[in-house]
Prior knowledge:
The protein has a domain at 33-76 and 138-305 and 352-469: Outer membrane efflux proteins (OEP) (Up-down Bundle). The protein contains nine helices and four strands. It has helices at 2-17, 63-75, 77-98, 140-206, 212-247, 276-279, 284-305, 350-416, 422-456; strands spanning 104-114, 120-135, 310-321, 333-342. A four-stranded antiparallel sheet has the order 1-2-3-4, covered by helices on one side. Strand 1 and strand 2 (120-135) form a beta hairpin. Helix 4 runs antiparallel to helix 9 (422-456), helix 5 runs parallel beside helix 9 (422-456) and helix 7 (284-305) runs antiparallel to helix 8. The longest helix is centred in the middle third of the chain and has 67 residues, at 140-206. The chain is elongated, with a radius of gyration of 36 Å. 34% of the residues are buried.
Amino acid sequence: MRCVAICASLGAAALLAACASMAPRYERPPLAVPERFAAAQAEPAASGPLAADIDWRQVFVDPRQRRLIELALQNNRDLRVAALNVEQAQARAQIQGASLWPTVAAGVSASRQDTATGTTLKSYSAGVLVTAYELDFFGRLRSLSEAAQAQVVAAEQGRRATYLSLVAAVAATHLALLADDEQLTLTQETLDTRVESLRLIQLRYDNGTLSELDLQTARSVVSSARAALAALQRQRALDENTLVLLVGAPLPADLPAGAATLAEMGAFPVLPVGLPSSVLQRRPDILAAEQQLIAANFNIGAARAAFFPQVTVTATAGTISNEFSGLFKSGSWGWSVAPQLVQTLFDSGRNAAGSRLAEASRDTALAQYDKTVQTAFREVADALSGRDTLNEQARALQEQSQAETIRLRLADLRYRNGVASSLDLLDAQRSLFAVQQLAVLANLAQAQNQVSLYKALGGGWSEATAATAKAP
Length: 472
């Protein structure tokens, strides 16, 4: 019963001591960004769910693209590392939290001492022991424990940020592969057309109706198309290698069929933007930066508490006897409590330096939080700026491509009828090919910008997807 009383007293002391804290009162810093996104000034207030509340499966509906994202969420190593970082942070928090409670040990000991007179002294003891348990009157241990808990939340948000980045990266790379395939098809068709034009020009040159200038120009444009084809083949291989890295495994052969071109991809949903205060505070990277700031704030409390006395208690309860056979007999039980108070008088400025370090770390975390907010604001603003301008650019290039197609057809007719020179025909071919390439790239930039906007607004996560983000 005495042992139980000691443990209960120590537990009550721990709870009493845990109430104290010398950490500064935390207040969320104001967002160091404008109140509205410039590109969204004319937009009506958001009426639907924000992007942060829209699961990625509702956005990326293409079967092939969705399967690639699912495989990446299962195999990607960065996501595994992020999940393991959470486990490490949880373990560190548990270790730190354990310091708030006494560690109770049990043991049996024996000693023997021979005196100069030939007498032998024997001693046997058994019981429980609490060694140097710190009573946290000034909140040092509590502050460290709270800081560790904040680090756990920061790691969780970091895992979520990695999750969202992975979803967006796989989606964007899949779009890049579609654009590569479109450009490869376009370049191969252009090369075939130029080879046929070279054949006709070669015949006319052999018959003496065209100059060598026409022939060499035709050969040049054919070589240019072949070089472009080789460059695109290399680019597609690089993009596929990037996708394999993101997926974390070789691409399976049984991937479902999806859209063959960017134009066949499903329409991207309209995403309400809302105010920066509601958008940015849902982004996991900002939430992680804030938790780092909270942890640094608690570390200041621990550093301040180090200036005050440290109170520790050592307690024992058990039995002692001169004979091992009498170790557990009635009347041999006892207990002892030995409190100790230690106040540092001189430490060469260690505690003062620790306090300055904690405050400097808090200021650094605050600066990093502000930078994260500003970077997130810029990402959203950039995506909003590109949303309308890229649409207009893609539309204009499509119209130009149609005009260049008609121009090439007319130039070919004029050339075949002997009205125009071969240089006019080759120039029309070059112009059409260049515009068609730009049109594909504009469509790709438009599609990838939509993915970037979804990611920048914090989209892609929901409670239903949390389980799939766990490391195997």
